[in-house]
Amino acid sequence: MFPYFEERTPAEAAAIRKTIQDLLRQTCILQVKYDPVTLTARDNGRYQVCSAHREFIADYLAVLGCELIHDPQDRMFRIAGEGMPVEKLSLTTTKLVLLLKLIYRDKIMGEGLSATVTCLEEIREYGRSTNLLPGRLTAQEWQTALNVMKTHQMIELPGAILNVEDKTPIYIYSTVNIFCPSSEINRLVELYREETEERAEEGGADGEAGEENLYPDVSE
Predict the structure, then answer these.
(1) How would you write 31-98 as a 3-class SS string?
(2) Within 10 Å of residue 107's Cβ, how many Cβ atoms?
(3) I need a labelling partner for 145 at 20 to 30 A (CA). Which of 66, 88, 164, 211 fits?
(4) Order of strands across the sheet with 67-71?
């Protein structure tokens, strides 16, 4: 395995190393990235590195207990397996991921791929209509959730997270399905709605009861 790596040029070796780091940090690498304002597609160089050095990267990740999976339909490489870094989400962030999936599903069914853009205002509206977010979130809660979703390639933002306003376009990638597949969405929404209502009745603050694992209940 390593002789292959040593035979690469310095530039190739650096690209492979960075690509592996990105996979471990953000779970997946998309073939195409979008400008969330213009929806202009552009090729992702990391995806090309995965394609060109797929066998080496897969072998390297296998040593870490991870599997490299190629999804040609969604045009991405992603990792799975027991060796994956475990991301812990607050209850609020988990609910926002669910709301993002609901918005993505509704837009795909209604307007198609070119319309998978949302904003904070719309997310709040979905939160109120599902009763998942009956109250106001703090700026820190929004920033934390957006950062997690951006890191894991669920969304694309036109600028820094700190600059996201009510009407700022947020582009939703199909990767949201990895963390919240359609077969689970209704069950999970109902589950978290009930928990939110129970917390409200008990007078507890949303998101104070520990963290949720990003993967077990919402992964395929």
Answers:
(1) CEEECCCCCCEEECHHHHHHHHCHHHHHHHHHHCCCEEEEECCCCEEEEECCCCCCCEEEHHHHHHHH
(2) 18
(3) 66
(4) 28-30, 76-80, 67-71
* Burial degree of 23 (CB within 10 A; 0-12, 13-18, 19+): buried
Residue with tokens 């069950």: 187
Per-residue HEC secondary structure of 179-219 comes to HCCHHHHHHHHHHHHHHHHHHHHHCCCCCCCCEEECCCCCC
Report phi then psi at 205, rounded to 5: -85, 140
CA distance 83 to 62: 9
Question: In which residue are the tokens 């002789």 written?
Answer: 3
Predicted confidence at residue 217, as pLDDT, reads 40
Confidence of residue 115 (pLDDT cuts 50, 70, 90): low
Tell me, what's the pLDDT at 184? 65
